[in-house]
């Protein structure tokens, strides 16, 4: 009886609770569900609107990481107001995901028109160089900043875009317009196969492909030797730029550079982008972009890589496994990531470099930033902001400006007006002169060309002798006889290297030409060897001894045994002859 009473009381309590819940209006339930959903969305999308509100919309200060003894910070970065100010994100874009998505789908890019130039790499690949001149922005018909002559002194900024980005990307348009608006010329080096250009070789770009940067920079320096060269890399382009600067060290024509939102460590970013649900959305979005890029060049990729695997790729790692790893001949995807990460190269950067990253970057995580390496290098200044997303950094109510453009412009402008540029130009000039004078010493290999010249592998230098022959129409035979006399003089004096002036060389060549006419039938091999010897002696006397040392050490095991055997035979003959006489 007591059990039934307790059961009745328990059931009646539930009935009363249900009746009370039914008395609550439906609108209150909808409001509660909305609040729960908004709370979940606020955390899922990483909103920081209320944080900014409580902070009085003052923004957060920019954090700088640099070496205490850095001249780059004292002379350049300390004079950039944006690096010592605060960054406040657009209030209605108070989320790294909203900022990143808004940049890609809208972006408010300026309207501009490029001038396209097709650059052909040594391996047959084609690279689209899109130019935006300062005169194009200002509408100057006189061409105040034209780059069609070698006397152009207007600075040139080389832009290296991110993964699957090209000159049509909104953030790229923001960047090139900002730079050109301040009187500089900009050239955007599109990645291979992008920018509407077909693949003309079997070489594809990847996160660590620096050969295109090397060739483009060398071409620009040769064509415009008086124009200072700067570089700005974004996302994967920043990784390529930093890796290139670390590989070449001081042997670059760039005066300064900026790396924006670099992934730094590709292996860490790969783990990060597949960690959470929201990051997986970026992973799939990037994979779709890569598959679209692959579809444009299916005829080549289907021959070089696993096309079936590419078509089924659902992440960046899958695409790298079936395409990038195979074409780049890496054993595993992790090997590719480790080999191409720029974090291990930033310590070797030898020019002023500004690096900007957002701590809430949804693609390139803060975990990959090489804080200690940047702090150890006196040429690197690392600027980090608490918010900003990936390449976005929108500011203002209308979200019409990208904050990171200001510090990049300020850094390069201050650097251009600083003594760093002049010292860099002098250093580049000296390094080029040393390279030409000591190309044999610096080259890792020695190559013998068809005309008998000795030079470092990959360095195509025109000799003074060939210039004299072509410019003055002097027969090569006369020059060869002059070289023979020079070599005899070098052997007799044994004290200094003969580097005659151009006038004396011409006079000697003319005298030799008039006195000796039968030298035209001279053996080609002998003349080639004479040219080689003279080139070696002209460049550096140490080179001759170095080559002689190498020749002796490499051939001694064979020559030594042969000499010992010959001496043994002579001694045997002597002793045997003496024994017979006895």
UniProtKB/TrEMBL annotation:
This is AB hydrolase-1 domain-containing protein. PANTHER family: ABHYDROLASE DOMAIN-CONTAINING PROTEIN (PTHR10794), ALPHA_BETA HYDROLASE 1, ISOFORM A (PTHR10794:SF63). Belongs to the AB hydrolase superfamily. AB hydrolase 4 family. Residues 155-396 form the AB hydrolase-1 domain. Signal peptide: none annotated. GO terms for molecular function: monoacylglycerol lipase activity; short-chain carboxylesterase activity. Keywords: Membrane, Transmembrane, Transmembrane helix. The chain crosses the membrane at residues 21-45, 542-564. It comes from the Eukaryota. It holds the Pfam family Abhydrolase_1. It comes from Stephania cephalantha.
């Amino acid at each position: 009886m007591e059990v039934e009473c307790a059961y009745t009381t328990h059931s009646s309590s539930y009935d009363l609770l249900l009746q009370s819940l039914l008395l609550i209006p439906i609108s209150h339930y909808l409001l509660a569900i909305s609040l729960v959903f908004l709370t979940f969305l606020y955390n899922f999308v990483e909103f920081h609107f209320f944080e900014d509100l409580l902070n009085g919309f003052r923004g957060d200060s920019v954090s700088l990481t640099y070496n205490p003894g850095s001249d780059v910070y004292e002379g350049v970065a300390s004079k950039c107001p944006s690096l010592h100010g605060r960054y406040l994100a657009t209030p209605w874009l108070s989320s790294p995901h909203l900022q990143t998505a808004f940049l890609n789908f809208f972006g408010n890019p300026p309207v501009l028109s490029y001038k396209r130039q097709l650059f052909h790499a040594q391996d047959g690949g084609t690279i689209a160089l899109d130019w935006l001149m300062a005169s194009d922005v200002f509408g100057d018909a006189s061409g105040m900043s034209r780059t069609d002559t070698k006397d152009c002194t207007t600075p040139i900024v080389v832009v290296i875009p991110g993964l699957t980005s090209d000159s049509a990307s909104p953030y790229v348009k923001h960047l090139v317009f900002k730079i050109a608006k301040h009187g500089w010329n900009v050239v955007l080096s599109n990645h291979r196969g992008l920018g509407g250009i077909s693949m003309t070789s079997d070489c594809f770009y990847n996160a660590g492909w620096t050969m295109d940067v090397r060739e483009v920079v060398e071409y620009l320096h040769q064509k415009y030797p008086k124009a200072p060269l700067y570089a700005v890399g974004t996302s994967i382009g920043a990784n390529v730029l930093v890796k290139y600067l670390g590989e070449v060290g001081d042997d670059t024509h760039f005066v300064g550079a900026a790396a924006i939102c670099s992934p730094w460590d590709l292996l860490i970013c790969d783990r990060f982008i597949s960690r959470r649900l929201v990051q997986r959305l970026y992973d799939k979005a990037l994979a779709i972009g890569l598959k679209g890029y692959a579809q444009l060049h299916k005829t080549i990729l289907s021959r070089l890589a696993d096309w079936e695997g590419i078509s089924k790729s659902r992440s960046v790692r899958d695409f790298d496994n079936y395409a990038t790893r195979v074409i780049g001949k890496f054993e595993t995807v992790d090997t590719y990531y480790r080999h191409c990460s720029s974090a291990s190269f930033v310590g070797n950067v030898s020019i002023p470099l500004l690096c900007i990253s957002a701590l809430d970057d949804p693609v390139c995580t803060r975990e990959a930033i090489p804080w200690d390496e940047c702090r150890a290098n006196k040429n690197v200044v690392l600027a980090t902001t608490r918010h900003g997303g990936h390449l976005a950094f929108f500011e203002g109510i209308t979200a019409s400006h990208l904050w990171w453009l200001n510090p990049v412009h300020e850094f390069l402008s201050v650097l251009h007006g600083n003594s760093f540029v002049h010292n860099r130009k002098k250093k580049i000039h000296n390094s080029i002169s040393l390279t030409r004078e000591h190309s044999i010493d610096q080259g890792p290999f020695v190559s013998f060309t068809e005309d008998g010249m000795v030079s470092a592998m990959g360095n195509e230098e025109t000799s003074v002798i060939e210039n004299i022959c072509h410019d003055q129409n002097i027969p090569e035979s006369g020059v060869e006889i002059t070289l023979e006399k020079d070599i005899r003089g070098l052997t007799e004096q044994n004290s200094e290297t003969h580097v005659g002036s151009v006038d004396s060389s011409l006079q000697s060549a003319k005298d030799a030409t008039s006195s000796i006419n039968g030298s035209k039938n001279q053996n080609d091999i002998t003349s080639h060897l004479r040219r080689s010897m003279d080139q070696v002696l002209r460049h550096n006397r140490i080179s001759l001894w170095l080559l002689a040392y190498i020749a002796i050490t490499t051939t001694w095991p064979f020559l030594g045994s042969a000499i010992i055997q010959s001496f043994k035979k002579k001694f045997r003959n002597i002793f045997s002859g003496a024994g017979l006489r006895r």
